[in-house]
Amino acid sequence: MADKFKPFVSPEVNMKEFTIKSIVLGCIFGIIFGAATVYLALKAGLTVSASIPIAVIAITLGRRFFKTTILENNIIQTTGSAGESIAAGVVFTLPGFLFLTDGGGEQFFNYMTILILAIFGGILGTLMMIPLRRSLIVKEHETLPYPEGTACGEVLIAGEKGGDFAKTAFYGLGFAFIYAILQKVMHIVAEVPFYMTKQVNKYFPSARISGEITPEYMGVGYIIGPRIAGVLVAGGVLSWLALIPLLSSLVPADMIAAQLVKLGYLASVTTPGGKGNWDPSLHTFGDFSSAVYFAYVRQIGAGAVAAGGFITLIKTIPTIISSFKGSIGSFKKEGTGEAGIANGAVPRTERDLNVKIVLIGSIALIVLMAFLPQLPGDSIGKKLLVGLLVVIFGAFFVTVSSRIVGLIGSSNNPISGMTIATLMGTCLVFIAVGWSGKVYEPMALVVGGMICIAAANAGGTSQDLKSGYIVGATPMYQQLALFIGAIVSSIVIGLTVKFLDKPTAAMIANGVTDHAIGSTYYPAPQGTLMATLAKGILSYNLDWQFVLVGVFLAITMELCGIKSLSFAVGAYLPLSTTLPIFIGGAIRGLVDKKRKKDNIQVSAEEEELGKGNLFATGLVAGGAVAGVIIAILAGFDGSASVLASINLEEKLSHTLGTGGYFILGTVAFALMGTYLYRVAVKK
């Protein structure tokens, strides 16, 4: 029974916990992993959990240099994990402002708006979890495992092993950072080797195989495993090696160009350039595969992602209903025990923030959203409705998200489905009150964006509170740490988004002039999808024939017993993204096969803390952080000229030929994969 559970640190023990050094260290980790998550989510539409690596690093650095206690280490990982959760919610939705009808949302894609929405969404996610902690974390301790939270708690308790764990993660981080310098600064390693058949090829025109051979993609693939990585790349294979060759055979170039004009990817059919490098004099494209991808396949992929997210949500409806009823019922019955805290009857490990904060915070949130000029809406009344919808949907989906991650973990949380449902529900409410047209698209996206951020942060908050329950933390201090982490990380998340959105000199040379987000460099698949849905419902400006193809593609996958959302994301993204992720997953599959052959049994908890997983986490963090730093440096004119001076791509391509240069990069990626395998199979 949960009532008999004894935490590692007894409630009667008074130990250093909510200290300045624990908050500062947590904020630093939140900034690092928040920035890395922005980079990874914009490029691949994926994220990985930051709690365990932060806990491992906190144990090592804290014990060696700062003499931190286990409860301080818990505050460090709690504060730091908020950055990763909020970054995921921001990147999955707010870039959608750039893709609304006639650029109507671009004015809201500014730093202050992103900052406000990130902070509000992060606070909402933690705020709504205050009254739910006792019902979900305490009362259902035996029935809701919260896998990441439990693993993180075990890491903190096994602090004596922290040095060995962290050493592997640091090796991965250092390896990835050096690789990223060779690839993204010196360009000794090719960034995206590719091979493409010609359009005039009689049997297989404009088929393209490519790979963005970065350490973060290999690390992500290893972490998610061969099954999900295989489904992900399968979607890419369908798009780039089936649909694109088929459509390039059947659809005339002029028709593809007209479709690109309609979507805004090409100025006019008489203007050269645009996606695919259109040549109006020869009526052909320099890159047919890219032209077909942007004209048709992305919309098919968007339809598949929407359907996959919605199907995932529908499948969890029984869990949603039971969790909402159970949480509300438990809240009414238990309350939060403020009177007991006041007279000292409530133990330290059961002290939450006052439940009145939830009510006051919710009202304050609605009022601030109504009066802040940075948020869309031309009247206070309309903005009040938006704020009210945010709180209503937030209360529901925070409960849903917190319950679901308790069963299946944060990595499998159907955040996309919840956001899609929120966006569709908001649009339908708008239509019901007579609001239709492009002017209301940004307002709908605000609701969807904040709920996405809140639900993502609520899932992370639940895992953190579970870790705290296991180690014997004070919930009130964890909740305060989460508020601080949400605010501090949001400051840097907004800056990172804006820096990455600024095209570098290399991007401008390749035709990306206004925004890097939405280009092939940072596709932002979920953000594009959210904008597509808002436009489709409110402005009736959607190519439903392509979207419906994607919808039934997702349904087909579900009927085959395959998780459609992973397949759909793969169909939407470039194959250059999913192929290296698949290679990372294949390495994990080889490691698992060797263990099985050697009759080595590894539990799920041991796998989370295995050398392969920790090294892969280091690859993700190192590669993503290096990518962010290099992107920021490239944004400054002085740094850009220095980076250009040490770029060896042209010399190597001239000496080795383009094919030889690509082979050199592929060999470097293979060596990294070999090293990851060797690390992973060590005991």
From TrEMBL:
GO terms for cellular component: membrane. It comes from the Bacteria. InterPro entries: OPT, YSL-like. Pfam families: OPT (PF03169). GO terms for molecular function: oligopeptide transmembrane transporter activity. Its main location: membrane. It is found in: Membrane. It is a multi-pass membrane protein. The chain crosses the membrane at residues 20-42, 48-66, 78-99, 111-130, 228-247, 353-372, 384-409, 415-435, 442-460, 480-500, 544-565, 571-591, 612-636, 656-677. Keywords: Membrane, Transmembrane, Transmembrane helix, Transport. PANTHER family: OLIGOPEPTIDE TRANSPORTER YGL114W-RELATED. This is Oligopeptide transporter, OPT family.
